[in-house]
């Protein structure tokens, strides 16, 4: 532990000494006759507009214009530009997000587990990860906040937050059309428009159709492609300012994802069938297509702000969201029914957030109240067809239903006070109450597909029939001290605590509960404690420097952090041999709070303006995440055999940007060239290192060429992603003994693609 801390501090010291050589995602530059100036980056991380340099938080902010310029089209790609951040599409899905920041996150989207990273759309928290791989259009900026959040946000998040910030409607009529075409028959169209109806009332919205052929084929089911895309999206809003003191916005969004199911690539030869490993990692032999893949999500939010006077403002955010996902996940990725898992996710949430904000010359802050009522439901079959035949139970199926209600409320406050013109102290706190009400039903069936998915399988045993309720409460403080060493440099220290409530494992076997209290009888309390897992907490310490130097030619943000991670929730599932015949004929969920860990690291984000049109920006993250204790199911401490999932030691990106005036199409304009490389060191998919699924270090090369007319109407671009066509795993399933074929499958990041874009603004 001491060694890891010392190592991180040594790295930070070395980087600090070289700050003149190394900011955030490349900002725009303005130049007069003598001085180069960077445009000020304004963020709302503390629920008010502030310069990024003044915010004592590790944050990456990328503007919508910058996202378009470098060809970033969804949230997953944002992860390449932010240090110590991993954003991936979850295994077996097209739109479910797996997010990790500084080692904290969860990759399993099953009901009952909340994400460690909060996703916000215009200050509305998304309670579940389904449909959270948001395509980026009509966006003002993306903010990635690293470290615990809770004293400024409606929902507490233990590892960090990602904010999708939409643009407010303009006072004049605007319209924009964007068309993209590219590799694998990509065809995307986005239309955005807004107009004032009266002097005080404006309406606007965007409609998008995003399509692409698959990167591979389904060799078993003709007509289905693998990694295909077919998404329709709609966003609409209305803004009303009845007086200069009022602002009211009603915003709605809708997503319909009709993409073909994303199935895995087998990494081993079939044990029974002898099916060979396919040459193309994007091809699959998966034979399941019931239910058919479909994801729909929608939401509406009403935001009202009332300015009482120059110091006080009231803000209220009321929102309702729901989504539904049907997925036919074929774990064995073969035509035979060896390990087939049809699944449905249904989520809905109602949230209410009220804020009282105060602003004066020296004191700024807010007091808030948050309430959310949410339901997460999922049901799935685990059809073990060949296993059932082998043990004389044809069509063997382990059906699981999880239904989790969450009722949470919190009060929070955070205030920042300028002690002097250079010294600022911020203090915040949050009290959270999370109530979970869970229903878990698990049945052993024969006859194939369950009635829930249109089949007629018959139950022969009930392995879980559980209902339970528990409330988890916690107070989490935050303290920050920042000092402006000069007009261009800010140094800060932040201490914050994070908390994520517990729940009940929706895949555990209640009939397998032991005699926990040792009274010689397995009663209801033993079952309750067996199904329950407790909250996890983190204590985070961070020291950082933000500033600009050398006549504003260099901008850099550096942070060193340490997190003490307690009672880490470790979810998972394994094959189970219920009759001791040597064949796994079911599976069981295994979730515990068996781990204590320390996470230590350093981060750098920087930009250098080298010449009038040439700039370089870089982000570097280093992290050592170490389990101090990890108690396995047999009571043994196996910390030396466990690692953090999806947490590489090193993440980095470097980008060179060049701009120059260049007339084209008979019009004056500006040409922008950029080339980037992002690096990720070796990472593991699970806590136990796995030679099949662990991903060795790799690099991704990207490049963009964009021309923009001086009149602001036309933008034409060509973007190349993963130019070296690197094959890299982003997720996988590891069930070597569940089913007879050995189900070890991997999912991969996008191959090399090119996209041409034409953008016209009216």
Cα(first) to Cα(last) distance is 58 Å
Helix content: under 10%
Mind telling me the C-alpha Rg?
A: 26 Å
pLDDT averaged over residues = 90
Instruction: Provide the CATH topology.
Output: Maltoporin, Chain A
Number of strands: 44
CATH class: Mainly Beta
So how many helices? 5
Q: Estimate the global geometry from the Cα principal axes.
A: globular
The low-confidence parts are 1-37
Task: Determine the structural class based on helices, strands and strand pairing.
Answer: mainly beta
CATH superfamily: TonB-dependent receptor, beta-barrel domain
Biggest β-sheet strands, sense, barrel? 22 strands, antiparallel, barrel
Domains (count): 1
- Please report which band the strand proportion falls in: under 5%, 5-15%, 15-25%, 25-35%, 35-45% or over 45%: over 45%
**Which architecture does the CATH hierarchy give at level 2?**
Beta Barrel
Explain how this protein is built.
This protein has a single domain (2-761), classed as Maltoporin, Chain A, CATH 2.40.170.20. It is 5% helix and 55% strand. 50% of the residues are buried.
Secondary structure layout plus pairing:
Layout: H1 2-17, E1 29-31, E2 36-38, E3 42-43, E4 50-51, E5 58-63, H2 64-69, H3 75-78, E6 85-89, E7 97-101, E8 104-106, E9 117-121, E10 124-126, E11 139-146, E12 160-166, E13 174-182, E14 186-196, E15 201-212, E16 216-217, E17 225-226, E18 229-240, E19 246-257, E20 265-266, E21 294-307, E22 312-330, E23 340-359, E24 363-380, E25 383-384, H4 385-390, E26 396-418, E27 423-446, E28 458-486, E29 489-500, E30 503-504, H5 524-531, E31 532-533, E32 536-549, E33 554-570, E34 573-576, E35 586-589, E36 592-609, E37 614-630, E38 650-661, E39 669-680, E40 698-709, E41 714-721, E42 729-735, E43 743-748, E44 753-761
Parallel strand pairs: 9-12
Antiparallel strand pairs: 1-2, 3-4, 5-11, 6-7, 7-8, 9-10, 11-12, 13-14, 13-44, 14-15, 15-18, 16-17, 18-19, 19-21, 20-43, 21-22, 22-23, 23-24, 24-26, 25-26, 26-27, 27-28, 28-29, 29-32, 30-31, 32-33, 33-36, 34-35, 36-37, 37-38, 38-39, 39-40, 40-41, 41-44, 42-43
């Amino acid at each position: 532990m001491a060694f890891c801390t010392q190592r991180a501090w040594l790295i930070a010291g070395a980087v600090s000494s070289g700050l003149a050589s190394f900011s955030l995602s490349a900002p725009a530059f303005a130049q007069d006759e003598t001085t180069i100036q960077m445009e000020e980056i304004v963020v709302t991380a503390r629920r008010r507009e502030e310069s990024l340099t003044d915010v004592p938080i590790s944050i990456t902010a990328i503007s919508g214009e910058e996202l378009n310029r470098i060809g970033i089209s969804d949230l997953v790609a944002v992860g390449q530009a932010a240090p110590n951040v991993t954003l991936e599409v979850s295994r077996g899905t097209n739109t479910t997000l797996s997010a990790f920041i500084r080692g904290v996150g969860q990759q399993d989207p099953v009901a009952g587990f909340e994400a460690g990273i909060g996703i916000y759309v215009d200050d509305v928290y998304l309670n579940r990860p389904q449909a959270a791989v948001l395509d980026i259009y009509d966006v003002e900026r993306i903010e990635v906040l690293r470290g615990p959040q809770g004293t400024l946000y409606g929902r507490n998040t233990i590892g960090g937050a990602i904010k999708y910030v939409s643009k407010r409607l303009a006072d004049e009529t605007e319209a924009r059309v964007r068309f993209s075409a590219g590799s694998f028959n990509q065809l995307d169209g986005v239309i955005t428009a807004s107009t004032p109806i009266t002097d005080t009332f404006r309406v606007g919205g965007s409609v998008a159709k995003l399509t692409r052929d698959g990167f591979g084929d389904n060799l078993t089911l003709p007509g289905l492609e693998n990694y295909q895309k077919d998404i329709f999206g709609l966003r609409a809003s209305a803004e009303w300012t009845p007086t200069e003191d009022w602002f009211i916005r009603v915003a709605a969004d809708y997503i319909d994802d009709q993409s073909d199911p994303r199935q895995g690539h087998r990494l081993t030869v079939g044990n029974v069938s002898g099916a060979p490993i396919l040459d193309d990692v994007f091809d699959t032999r998966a034979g399941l297509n019931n239910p058919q893949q479909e994801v729909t999500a929608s939401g509406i939010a009403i935001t009202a702000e009332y300015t009482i006077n120059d110091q006080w403002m009231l803000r209220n955010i009321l929102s309702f969201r729901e989504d539904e996902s049907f997925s036919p996940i074929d774990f064995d990725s073969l035509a035979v029914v060896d390990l087939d898992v049809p699944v449905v996710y249904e989520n809905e949430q109602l949230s209410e957030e009220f804020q009282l904000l105060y602003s004066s010359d020296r004191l700024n802050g807010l007091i808030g109240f948050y309430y959310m009522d949410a339901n997460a439901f999922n049901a799935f079959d685990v059809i073990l067809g060949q296993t059932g035949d082998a043990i004389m139970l044809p069509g063997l199926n382990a059906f699981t239903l999880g239904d989790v209600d969450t009722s949470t409320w919190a009060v929070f406050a955070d205030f920042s006070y300028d002690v002097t013109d250079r010294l600022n102290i911020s203090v915040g706190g949050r009290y959270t109450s999370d109530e979970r009400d869970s229903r878990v039903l698990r049945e052993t069936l024969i006859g194939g597909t369950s009635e829930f998915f249109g089949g007629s399988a018959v139950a022969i045993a009930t392995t879980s029939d559980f209902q339970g309720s528990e409330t988890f409460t916690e107070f989490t403080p935050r303290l920050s001290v920042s000092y402006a060493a000069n007009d261009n440099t800010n140094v800060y220290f932040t201490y914050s605590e994070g908390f994520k409530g517990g729940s009940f494992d929706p895949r555990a076997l209640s009939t397998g509960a032991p005699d926990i209290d040792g009274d010689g009888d397995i009663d209801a309390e033993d079952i309750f404690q067996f199904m329950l897992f407790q909250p996890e907490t983190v204590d985070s310490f961070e020291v950082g420097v933000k500033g600009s130097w050398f006549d504003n030619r260099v901008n850099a943000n550096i942070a060193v952090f340490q997190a003490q991670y307690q009672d880490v929730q470790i979810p998972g599932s394994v094959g189970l041999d219920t009759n001791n015949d040597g064949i796994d004929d079911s599976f069981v969920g295994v979730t515990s709070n068996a781990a204590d860990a320390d996470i230590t690291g350093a981060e750098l984000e920087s930009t250098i303006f080298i010449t009038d049109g040439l700039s370089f920006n870089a982000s570097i993250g280093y992290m050592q995440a170490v389990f101090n204790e990890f108690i396995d199911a047999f009571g043994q401490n196996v910390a030396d055999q466990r690692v953090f999932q999806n947490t590489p030691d090193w993440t980095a990106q470097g980008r060179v940007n060049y701009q120059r005036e260049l007339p084209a199409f008979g019009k004056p304009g500006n040409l922008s060239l950029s080339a980037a490389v992002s690096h990720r060191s070796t990472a593991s998919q699970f806590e136990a290192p796995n030679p099949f699924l662990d991903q060795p270090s790799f690099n991704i090369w990207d490049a963009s060429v964009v021309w923009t007319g001086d009149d602001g109407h036309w933008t034409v671009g060509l973007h190349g992603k993963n130019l070296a066509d690197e094959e890299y795993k982003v997720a996988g399933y590891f069930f070597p003994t569940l089913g007879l074929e050995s189900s070890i499958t991997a999912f991969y990041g996008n191959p090399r693609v090119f996209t041409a874009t034409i953008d016209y603004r009216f």
